Amino acid sequence: MSTVIGDENIANVVPRPIGRMVAYWAVTIILTFSIALSGIGQLMRYGGNVDLVTSIGFPLYITYILGGWKLLGVMAIVIPGFPRLKEWAYSGIFFLMTGAALSHAFVNDYGDYGFHIILPLFYAVLGIASWALRPKNRKL
């Protein structure tokens, strides 16, 4: 039991919902790890990145552009501060991933079981979830 003596001000402490914070970091870590690995793979032209790009008719140099932007977007999301830059990074990831899904769909390159459409759309949804769950200190 606490007693107040004199004119002391008692601060109202509002507990932060731990579940929301855990969900934010879980989604954000999965998103940033996946996008970073994809960006590194595109910069190194590792694995099927060359086939993915050339099969839909894009020039091969686009892998350097996309890979670089992905890594910069991941850094913007993870580094504290810069809320406006975070907004741009989230929107960039959304447009990049939906654009990838649509590019594959327009040339009928669905991959096995629609993998070339489903995976980028999954990353777009992760981006939306990370954006929606972010704490107040990461918002504008």
Give a nutshell description of this structure:
This protein has 140 residues and is an all-alpha fold.
Percent range of helical residues: 55-70%
The secondary-structure element order is HHHHH
Q: For the terminal residues, how far apart are their CA atoms? A: 40 Å
The value of Rg in angstroms is 20 Å
Largest β sheet strand count, sense and barrel closure: none
Q: Work out the number of β strands.
A: 0
Shape: elongated
Low-confidence stretches: none
Beta percentage is under 5%
Task: Tell me the structural class.
Answer: mainly alpha
Tally of separate domains: 1
Write a structural description:
With 140 residues, this protein is mainly α. The protein has one domain (37-134). Helices cover 67% and strands 0% of the residues. It contains five helices and no strands. Helix 4 runs antiparallel to helix 5 (115-133). The chain starts with 17 loop residues before the first helix and ends in a 7-residue tail after the last helix. The model has no long low-confidence stretch (mean pLDDT 89).
